């Protein structure tokens, strides 16, 4: 019972992180537009987050190795909180771009540490359940954070302070622990060539999803603002897209377990491309048509990355899941960084609806690639596939998320050291304990 309570305490910590992250991401896009930031600056704010997030995913394990999980998490939460508050005090585009990169770095580090603790206490028989609950909680919390903007609005200090409170409170489940720290964080296994040799479709999918969803996640709020939506309307718009995207993972994931996953990718990416093209053609004013198009986009686009990861894993050799998923994570991060900048330039040169030229183009690229690859390579028999696993927001996947994924059970992970550092206060008392017993 004690271990169950502690696991759910970590779920609470993760939920607070995602709540603050969901609120902050949407808030900065809309508030930046209200402040008159250029479209390029707004795009670079999204780029800054992605660059910082990828950098944090790679370097935070080294920091944790030196100072331990609790201290590292406290530092990440504290700096992340400060950056949110500095967004309020320094309202200019250059400051927000730099602060967003720092925020992404801290968010990646904090999320990895929580996931590391969950991974340590998860037994093989319960890993799938824990992973599923974790993904569901993160999706729900991130969506609630976005919806919160409809209550707080974007003016004044309240939304920034609420985000800061959420982020700093996430430290409590780890800061209050009296148990030893888990083993060091897993090093990111990155082998892009192995990924491409294993599945060219998965590599193209990671980049296409990064370009499309990076642009959409950063600049779609700006598009909504330019078309006349207020803060409440934009929050609801994104909530609808996120909820339908989360729901869509289950039926499409199960369908991909029974038929060639590339057929599912063709259907999803093709549909997302059509929705993007329709949005460009209709360019709807604020109203029901915009909600329908955003809902359709979320339903089609959000499951793509999880299906692509499952497709790559179908062709992977035993023990290669982490390397392949890590390669996809790097390519995804590159797309997430480039997408907002490119989309902002198209929006500035032509029209705000130019955002959806990017989403339509890159989803079409993925659909065509998957179709051509089906003519070259046969699919894996359904009986030989690992079951599909739903995944959280593709902008928040870390190397530790990969380790927590039950499909990674057979992998031989590379750790930055053999043993986790023992806090001084525990070392002096001799209470080193055993993390595998479920103590956190």
TrEMBL record:
Keywords tagged on the record: Membrane, Transmembrane, Transmembrane helix
Residues annotated as domain Major facilitator superfamily (MFS) profile: 6-378
Record SUPFAM superfamilies: MFS general substrate transporter
InterPro entries according to UniProt: MFS, MFS_dom, MFS_trans_sf, MFS_YcaD-like
Disordered as annotated region, ranges: 390-440
Segments traversing the membrane: 7-27, 39-60, 72-91, 97-118, 130-151, 157-179, 200-225, 231-251, 263-282, 288-312, 324-347, 353-372
Name by which UniProt lists this protein: MFS transporter
């Amino acid at each position: 019972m004690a271990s169950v309570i502690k696991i759910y305490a970590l779920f609470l910590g993760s939920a607070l992180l995602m709540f603050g992250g969901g609120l902050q991401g949407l808030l900065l896009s809309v508030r930046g537009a209200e402040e008159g930031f250029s479209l390029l600056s707004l795009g670079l704010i999204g780029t800054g987050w992605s660059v910082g997030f990828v950098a944090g995913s790679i370097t935070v394990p080294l920091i944790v190795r030196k100072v331990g999980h609790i201290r590292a998490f406290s530092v990440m939460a504290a700096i992340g909180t400060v950056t949110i508050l500095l967004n309020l005090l320094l309202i200019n585009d250059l400051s927000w771009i730099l602060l967003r990169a720092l925020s992404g770095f801290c968010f990646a580090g904090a999320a990895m540490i929580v996931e590391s603790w969950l991974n340590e206490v998860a037994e093989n028989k319960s890993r799938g359940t824990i992973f599923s609950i974790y993904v569901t909680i993160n999706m729900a919390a991130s969506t609630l954070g976005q919806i919160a903007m409809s209550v707080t609005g974007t003016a004044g200090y309240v939304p920034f302070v609420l985000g800061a409170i959420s982020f700093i409170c996430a430290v409590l489940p780890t800061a209050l622990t009296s148990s030893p720290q888990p083993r060091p964080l897993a090093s990111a296994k990155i082998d892009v060539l192995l990924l491409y040799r294993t599945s060219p479709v998965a590599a193209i999918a990671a980049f296409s999803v990064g370009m499309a969803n990076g642009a959409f996640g950063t600049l779609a709020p700006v598009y909504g603002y330019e078309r006349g939506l207020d803060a409440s309307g934009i929050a609801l718009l994104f909530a609808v897209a996120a909820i339908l995207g989360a729901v869509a993972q289950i039926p499409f994931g199960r369908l991909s377990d029974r038929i060639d996953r590339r057929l599912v990718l063709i259907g999803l990416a093709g549909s997302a491309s059509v929705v993007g093209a329709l949005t460009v053609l209709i360019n709807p004013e604020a109203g029901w048509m915009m909600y329908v198009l955003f809902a359709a986009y979320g339903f089609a686009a959000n499951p793509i990355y999880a299906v692509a990861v499952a497709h790559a894993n179908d062709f992977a050799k035993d023990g290669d899941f982490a390397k392949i998923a890590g390669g996809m994570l790097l390519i995804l991060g590159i797309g997430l960084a480039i997408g907002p900048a490119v989309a902002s330039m198209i929006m500035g040169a032509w029209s705000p609806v130019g955002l959806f030229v990017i989403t339509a183009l890159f989803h079409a690229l993925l659909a065509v690639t998957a179709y051509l690859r089906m003519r070259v390579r046969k699919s894996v028999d359904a009986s030989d596939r690992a079951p599909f696993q739903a995944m959280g927001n593709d902008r928040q996947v870390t190397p530790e998320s990969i380790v927590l994924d039950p499909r990674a059970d057979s992998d031989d992970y590379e750790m930055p050291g053999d043993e986790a550092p023992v806090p001084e206060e525990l070392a002096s008392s001799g209470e080193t304990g055993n993390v595998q017993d479920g103590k956190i």
